[in-house]
Design a protein that fits this description.
2 domains; Diaminopimelate Epimerase, Chain A, domain 1; 16% helix; 257 residues
Length: 257
């Protein structure tokens, strides 16, 4: 069958968005891997599938899939892209919960919800201090998906990222951020994403990095996060919610088999 899609990106973090709200395509793991392949398919960091919402207050259902076919619980950059595509500041129903959005011109803000810090919520294979993991002194939290942040040398992303992603401490693997603090309101970040590798930007990773930096007393609760693809603005509100603001772009529309 022919599948219509929209190719989008947020700061170079690129997505295939398939709207299944009226006609849901059959997408098995092998098909997702093929579509995400940059040589034999369309190519993307993640495939995003839209559906009719099932929860009150939601405007659209959203699921996220990695290039290896595994499902992700959250994706901040993809959430902004969906909000831009659907329009009218929709509330997204995701595996991580309901995510309200706002739009101000080309700037999309997503309320990413509250981070979680308990070992079982991230999850970790055993209980330990999530602010200082026994693995490169990383700090960990869940943004609906598992994150660990290593502070210091961001050039280690490509060498340490793959091994840390699959370390036994993370039974569901993890997204690994490498953050360099520039000032109390600015950091540089590179993220090795679970199932995708090094990407130009990671929205949930930026949220996790700011949360972990605040927990360590390294930054204020509002921080600009500069990644290879550009800047996101992250604010950790006093009520615990995290606001992520940045752009979203439509690249092209197409159909595939």
């Amino acid at each position: 069958m022919m599948i219509a899609f929209t190719k989008m990106h947020g700061l170079g973090n690129d997505f295939i968005v398939i709207d299944g709200r009226e006609n849901m395509p059959a997408l098995d793991e092998a098909t997702i891997r093929r579509l995400c392949d940059r040589r034999f398919g369309i190519g993307c960091d993640q495939l995003v599938l839209l559906s009719a919402p099932t929860l009150a207050g939601a405007d659209v259902g959203v699921r996220f899939f990695n290039p290896d076919g595994s499902e992700a619980g959250a994706c901040g950059n993809a959430s902004r892209c969906v909000a831009w595509l659907v329009g009218n500041a929709p509330t997204l129903q995701t595996p991580a919960g309901l995510l309200p959005t706002q739009q101000n011109g080309s700037l999309i803000t997503v309320n990413m919800g509250k981070p979680r810090f308990e070992s079982g919520d991230i999850p970790l294979s055993h209980a330990c201090d999530t602010l200082h993991l026994p693995l490169h002194d990383a700090a960990a939290c869940s943004m609906g998906n598992p994150h660990a942040t290593v502070f210091g040398d961001i050039t280690r992303a490509e060498t340490l990222g793959p091994a840390m992603e699959t370390d036994p401490l993370f039974p569901e693997r993890a997204n690994i951020g490498f953050a360099e603090i520039i000032s109390r309101s600015h950091m540089h970040l590179r993220v090795w994403e679970r199932g995708a590798g090094l990407t130009l930007a990671c929205g949930s990773g930026a949220c996790a990095a700011v949360v972990n930096a605040v927990r360590r007393g390294l930054t204020e609760r509002s921080c600009t996060v500069t990644m290879d693809g550009g800047d996101l603005h992250i604010t950790w509100l006093e009520n615990g919610d995290i606001l992520m603001a940045g752009p979203a772009m439509t690249v092209f529309y197409g159909t595939t088999v």
